[in-house]
Amino acid sequence: MAGQEVSNKQVVLKDYVVGFPKESDMEFKTSKINLKLSEDSNGILLKNLYLSCDPYMRSRMTKHDRPTYVESFPIMGYGVSKVLDSRHPDYKAGDLVWGITGWEEYSLISSPQLFFKIEHTDVPLSYYTGILGMPGMTAYAGFYEVGSPKKGDRVFVSSASGAVGQLVGQLAKLNGCYVVGSAGSKEKVDLLKNKFGFDEAFNYKEEKDLDAALRRYFPEGIDIYFENVGGKMLEAVLSNMRLHGRIPTCGMISQYNLEQPEGVHNLFEIVAKRIRMEGFIVFDYYHLYPKYLEMILPHIREGKVSYVEDVAEGLESAPAALIGIYSGRNVGKQLVVVSRD
Amino acid sequence: MAGQEVSNKQVVLKDYVVGFPKESDMEFKTSKINLKLSEDSNGILLKNLYLSCDPYMRSRMTKHDRPTYVESFPIMGYGVSKVLDSRHPDYKAGDLVWGITGWEEYSLISSPQLFFKIEHTDVPLSYYTGILGMPGMTAYAGFYEVGSPKKGDRVFVSSASGAVGQLVGQLAKLNGCYVVGSAGSKEKVDLLKNKFGFDEAFNYKEEKDLDAALRRYFPEGIDIYFENVGGKMLEAVLSNMRLHGRIPTCGMISQYNLEQPEGVHNLFEIVAKRIRMEGFIVFDYYHLYPKYLEMILPHIREGKVSYVEDVAEGLESAPAALIGIYSGRNVGKQLVVVSRD
């Protein structure tokens, strides 16, 4: 019953990381893997096609003295994969799936129930690392379930051209909101205004006074801040929130590589303006995935929602691609193609 | 139709305050007031009996460049008063009321619809500055409506012997929660444990490491933090919250007198633990007041809920009483008796 044994290139974290991660924090290893599962397995064997680079991945590179929401080692992340062999009743060879896999050519998954089967392939398969995968669900759950949007709400999105932000802005427009985004380059700002239909956008790196920038775009204040960055931007936003404003708190990428995170000094605004600031994690909302697909797929097919990807070719390019997202080098959703089929 | 003109002693703020307020920031003035309303009035004329000293009052002593939730000048605050004359159909001479009045012997109120009529006088009248007034409703709304408590929840209350905190702890115990409070003296800690029935209590001034103190009392973490103080305590609490914890954010008294508020550096905990931090103001919940009275009055009458007051005698003592709450000099709810009838 022995199957074919092949070499399996992998990306491995060499050691825990302090500060900004570097390419040299990762290294390539090659092991062997048998493409046929043993008879006592209950798992699936995957060929990885697309790997997703997501900000949250920084967290599990840090040595924690307490448990956090991500704990794994070596590098694991969301990806789109093809099932080569299955001993699990829900999957068969040839199925396409997305879920948390390894940064390697082939992965043996012992808990395949955490994977989603891909049913719709008339849209780009890579979208299942982005708008049709975890980041898409994050935007949807954060905006609708945590943000409680109403028509006419004034919405601000930071990190707005990223995997999540570009969709939040478009959902907000579909919902009849006024939307402003911030990003870190002219090219990204142009995308926000011309491709994603944000009402306004600005380059936060060119604003000496974020508070003044927000006052310019939100003279009457912000109803919903979709929080991706934390730190000084959060502080400026708090000063510009409206009464009963909501802050779905998705991430704080500006803080992940700092040894001492920045302090936020004006949290009293939360009392004065009755603000609800609520952290959320997409895991808690995956039961809504079918409902989300039903809503978003027609918009994608009809071109009413756009999605911009930044595609790195080959597993060899994965470390640089991952590191790039912490300095904003990517334009749009960063992903890595391991293989196109 | 001219009525009796009498002298009216008042407490006035001399100028905006920076840093900790001092007695010398206030002064006494005496004016004249006619105890009979003019015929074209739609207001009520009050004799003030009890005045309430509340932390939020610090805010309107500061000169703001933007509107905040409290704006008035000279000193105004919650109080219990007797109607001496009324030109408003809802009130008549002899009624007892509570609401926002002036720090003076007699007040002319032009918008009396904001006052609550006192119907139950078998309990101490001064309670309407505390457990039966704004602080009581604050505890009730914050704990039940914002905190979403469940039986068995682990609850932490800061400023726990104060006007709001002492009641939050008792409501939490009635609700089957485990409750720990912090306060600033041994006397207060004893009250929390022996009078209010908290499971545990500690003196935050004697804890060098607040994080370690909280870990000691909450080895499995905190479900609900009723936030009254902000700053370093909030930072320590965030590190000790449990998944899906809630932080009803009532006030941040530790920050009110700082020229530069402290920074909170670990807001990422809000994401990692899916915490909901929500500011609230009692105004938004006054429609629940009848329901609250119906619940709390029997508990008070049966002695199942206690309430400790710190009573200053005479309007002359009001400035010192107000200033004392910012250094924690009061033990229990601070109020001032202007007149007992």
TrEMBL record, chains A, B:
Keywords of this entry: Oxidoreductase
Molecular function as annotated in GO: 2-alkenal reductase [NAD(P)H] activity
Residues passing through the membrane, by range: none
Domain Enoyl reductase (ER), first and last residues per copy: 44-336
DNA-binding recorded as keyword: no
Pfam families referenced in this protein's UniProt entry, alphabetically: ADH_N_2 (PF16884), ADH_zinc_N (PF00107)
PANTHER family linked to this entry: PROSTAGLANDIN REDUCTASE, PROSTAGLANDIN REDUCTASE 1
Annotated protein name in UniProt: Enoyl reductase (ER) domain-containing protein
Source species taxonomy: Eukaryota, Viridiplantae, Streptophyta, Embryophyta, Tracheophyta
